[in-house]
């Protein structure tokens, strides 16, 4: 599961990916989770409230300390200087096998309605081809196709397993 600063409750949209957590791995595995600590502190300063699982990971990494059962209600406090970053604060140390990094470049996603140039190009591709359907036979839907007789036509040959009426 990738987690980051969400835009609205249960929207599924996010501003930035701040870490990764794989609950199926053993906790001692170095690939169990990663945290971009400077970006987490940035979003926490902006008012983001971590979920319980994210707060647990930030507590393990030594960034915040949980003080209550519900982290969404603000039941946590800082372990480091809240104004620290992008470099690691003095005295902070994490000895675990996981990657907890500082000095990362922001990777913010823009969801304000600005269309990138690639979106216009993608919109020109037929909908069926956007999702990986290749090699299908296009059936022309225009007046010429409707006026053609159905005997020995490409339209009839495209659907060999159907019982289309044959007009001569």
UniProtKB/TrEMBL annotation:
Please give one Pfam family short name. Ribosomal_S16
The answer to whether keyword Magnesium applies is no
Q: Which chain positions lie within coiled-coil regions?
A: none
| Keywords from the named record | Ribonucleoprotein, Ribosomal protein
Q: Name one GO cellular component term.
A: ribosome
InterPro entries recorded: Ribosomal_bS16 (IPR000307), Ribosomal_bS16_dom_sf (IPR023803)
Give the family, as the similarity comment puts it: Belongs to the bacterial ribosomal protein bS16 family.
Q: Specify the protein name.
A: 30S ribosomal protein S16
Species source reads Durusdinium trenchii
């Amino acid at each position: 599961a990738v987690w980051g600063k969400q835009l609205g409750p249960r929207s599924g949209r996010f501003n930035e990916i701040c870490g990764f957590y794989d609950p199926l791995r053993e906790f001692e595995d170095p690939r169990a989770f990663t945290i971009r600590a400077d970006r987490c502190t940035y979003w926490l300063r902006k008012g983001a409230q971590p979920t319980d699982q994210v707060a647990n990971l930030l507590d393990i990494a030594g960034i915040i300390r949980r003080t209550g059962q519900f982290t969404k209600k603000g039941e946590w406090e800082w372990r480091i200087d809240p104004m620290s970053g992008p470099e690691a604060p003095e005295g902070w140390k994490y000895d675990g096998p996981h990657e907890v990094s500082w000095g990362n470049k922001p990777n913010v996603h823009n969801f304000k309605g600005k269309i990138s140039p690639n979106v216009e190009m993608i919109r020109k591709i037929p909908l069926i081809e956007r999702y990986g359907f290749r090699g299908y036979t296009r059936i022309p839907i225009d007046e010429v196709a409707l006026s053609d007789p159905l005997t020995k036509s490409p339209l009839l040959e495209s659907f060999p397993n159907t019982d289309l009426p044959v007009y001569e």
